[in-house]
Specification:
- By secondary structure, this protein is an all-alpha fold.
- About 65% of the residues lie in helices and about 0% in strands.
- The chain has a two-stranded antiparallel ribbon.
- The protein has helices at about 15-35, 45-60, 75-105, 115-145, 165-200, 210-235, 240-260, 260-270, 275-285, 305-310; strands at about 150, 155-160.
- The radius of gyration is 22 Å and the shape is globular.
- It has a single domain (about 10-265, about 285-315), classed as Rhopdopsin 7-helix transmembrane proteins, CATH 1.20.1070.10.
- Keywords: Membrane, Transmembrane, Transmembrane helix.
- This is G-protein coupled receptors family 1 profile domain-containing protein.
Length: about 325
């Protein structure tokens, strides 16, 4: 898309904004609040940060709503922000996938590693916002130098005709997506090897895989490929409506993947039975639970079987 050819996508605005609001401004904030406030829900800080970045991402794309005045300061600000928000979300997603890979790579405590856990955690939490600030500032400077390039496509304000808009953000995000898919494949290989190891060493252990886990993994992997395809289309400047809808559905996809887990449903249920403390105590005494690793759990914090303990709860990792 260059300065002479601007897509008119205003007819998509109701659905586009609805997807952003439902996922990024309703669903994910509820999930974040549950992660932070519910006593029985434990999540890795990288996953919480992932959800926060997608909320910011969604807000950036919904700043204008139905207003399309390219001369307004709000339009200028949105154009700069939406060039930083995708890079932030892409990095935060990569961080979560790398954290899962790291957990499978080291199923026991990380001792003597080159990257101390606190250093790795701090780096993972800050990198998304560094990318956001850098790309937003660069976009703002370029827009200030060439205000005539500011446009609106009926959904949000952006700017066209500059190589950075086309190649800088898109190439960065496509690169992140490729890395995400590579790590997903590595996680699948590692999980399969661990599964075979457990099957040979502990033949009586419960090895059943949760159907909801399979569905969430399939959705995550499928949407990664779809998003990569959309990113490539943005690179080629092929004007289609569906890549914009894919982009709008990213927050609600994250809501579905990370918000459909048993411990979250239990936290949202006000009338639930109190746990049997004596039974849980006896169970904990007979089966080592590696409680020191709770902070590494990226999703469902519940564990119940020996195979879950040995594999660092793999069925609840995604």
């Amino acid at each position: 898309m260059d300065g002479s050819e601007v897509p008119e996508l205003g007819y998509l605005a109701p659905v586009y904004l609805g997807l952003h609001i439902a996922g990024g401004q309703v669903g994910l904030p509820i999930i974040i609040a549950t992660f932070l406030l519910a006593k029985n829900v434990t999540r890795h800080p990288s996953l919480i940060n992932f959800c926060i970045t997608w909320v910011i991402y969604s807000v950036c794309y919904c700043i204008l709503g139905d207003v399309n005045d390219i001369n307004s300061p709000v339009c200028f600000a949105q154009s700069a922000l939406i060039h930083g928000a995708p890079t932030m979300s892409a990095v935060s997603t990569l961080v979560v996938v790398v954290e899962i890979w790291w957990t499978f790579r080291e199923p026991t405590a990380s001792r003597g590693t080159r990257w101390p856990r606190n250093t790795r955690l701090t780096l993972g939490l800050t990198l998304p916002y560094i990318a956001f600030v850098v790309f937003t500032l660069i976009s703002g400077v370029l827009q200030n130098q060439h205000p005539d390039l500011l446009i609106t496509n009926g959904l949000y304000c952006t700017y066209a005709g500059d190589p950075f808009r086309r190649w800088g953000v898109s190439v960065f995000c496509v690169t992140m997506l490729i890395l995400i898919i590579i790590f997903e494949i590595a996680i699948g290989v590692r999980f399969y090897r661990l599964y075979r190891q457990i099957r040979s060493v502990f033949p009586l252990a419960d090895r059943k895989t949760s159907p909801t886990l399979v569905i969430r993994v399939l959705i995550f992997n499928l949407y990664s490929v779809i998003t990569l395809s959309a990113g490539i289309l943005f690179l080629t400047d092929t004007l289609r409506a569906w890549p914009f809808m894919v982009q709008a559905a990213l927050p609600i996809t994250a809501t579905i993947i990370f918000g459909t887990q048993q411990d979250l449903f239990k936290a949202w249920c006000f009338c639930r039975r109190k746990p049997n403390i004596e039974s849980n105590t006896a169970s904990n005494e007979s089966i080592p639970t590696f409680r020191r690793h709770d902070s590494l759990m990226l999703t469902d914090s519940s564990t119940s079987t020996p195979s879950n303990v040995i594999l660092m709860t793999p069925r609840d990792m995604v």
